[in-house]
Specification:
By secondary structure, the protein is α/β, with parallel strands linked by helices. It has 2 domains: 6-122, Rossmann fold; 132-235, Orthogonal Bundle (Arc Repressor Mutant, subunit A). The protein has helices at 14-26, 37-46, 63-73, 87-95, 108-122, 160-171, 179-187, 197-209, and strands at 6-10, 30-34, 51-55, 78-82, 100-103, 132-135, 140-143, 148-151, 154-155, 219-222, 226-229. Helix 1 (14-26) crosses helix 5 (108-122). The longest helix is centred in the middle third of the chain and has 15 residues, at 108-122. Keywords: DNA-binding, Phosphoprotein, Transcription, Transcription regulation, Two-component regulatory system. The modification 4-aspartylphosphate is found at residue 55. It holds the Pfam family Trans_reg_C.
Length: 238
């Protein structure tokens, strides 16, 4: 597994942040830290985060609220940290959307192992630093450097703008993007086009990469919110 994933670590104790950051960076990960819930959400909104290590007891906004807000728009892996050890507290944490749970004090080496395991499961088809990405046993192939997309071995002929939008999705699998956020990520904050033009781009991309563009399995619609990219067909809920 390529380790160049970006991890957000959120805790209100600086010494804990420093230790976790040091261990994760030693293992090859990029790490961003935050000391309160509001800052964590701001960072998540502006960075391409692949996993979150989240303490429950945070100032300004609790870890529970941060998790709930993120779960509305994304299935990004979340590991919760807490001083509470009761079984019902752990169950509550998992039920609100956490993928894993560690009770303080904990082994940082164990945390790193759990981080790696979660990333393998969540991004098994995706390596963020790879030059060529393949999905569903070669059904879709994307050459990042050459900007070439192939569907079942045939070049899909995406335009430059379509490719930019697709790469935003590839960098953030399973994350929901509003039209506005897609425009900002793909073209920059000063883009003068209308965010509704994203719908046209999505329609064109689907016609080129989906087996049936009327029933898309890669770029799916999250009604009332936007779009997300699903890297594996077996993740699609029929």
């Amino acid at each position: 597994m390529n380790n160049k994933f970006k991890i957000l670590v959120v805790d209100d104790e600086q010494n804990i942040l420093d230790v976790i950051k040091a261990y994760l960076e030693k293992d090859g990960f990029d790490v961003i830290t935050a000391m309160d819930g509001k800052s964590a959400l701001d960072i998540y909104s502006n960075e391409n985060i692949h996993l979150i290590v989240l303490d429950l007891m945070l100032p300004k906004m609790t870890g529970e609220e941060v998790c709930n807000r993120i779960r509305v728009i994304s299935s990004i892996p979340i590991i919760m940290l807490t001083a509470k050890s009761e079984e019902n507290e752990k169950i509550e944490g998992i039920s609100m959307g956490a993928d894993d749970y560690l009770t303080k004090p904990f082994s940082v080496r164990e945390l790193v192992v759990r981080v790696r395991a979660l990333l393998r499961r969540a991004y098994r088809d995706f390596s963020p630093m790879a030059d060529i990405l393949t999905f569903n046993n070669g059904d879709l192939e994307v050459d990042i450097k050459k900007m070439v997309v192939k569907k079942q071995g045939v070049v899909a002929n995406l335009t430059t703008n379509e490719f930019k939008i697709l790469t935003v999705f590839l960098s953030n699998p399973t994350q929901v993007f509003s039209r506005e956020k897609l425009v900002e990520k793909a073209f920059g904050a000063n883009y003068e086009g209308f965010d509704r033009t994203v719908d046209s781009y999505i329609k064109n991309i689907r016609q080129k990469i989906e087996s049936n563009h009327k029933e898309p399995t890669y770029i799916t619609t999250v009604y009332g919110m936007g779009y997300k990219f699903i890297p594996s067909n077996d993740e699609v809920k029929k």
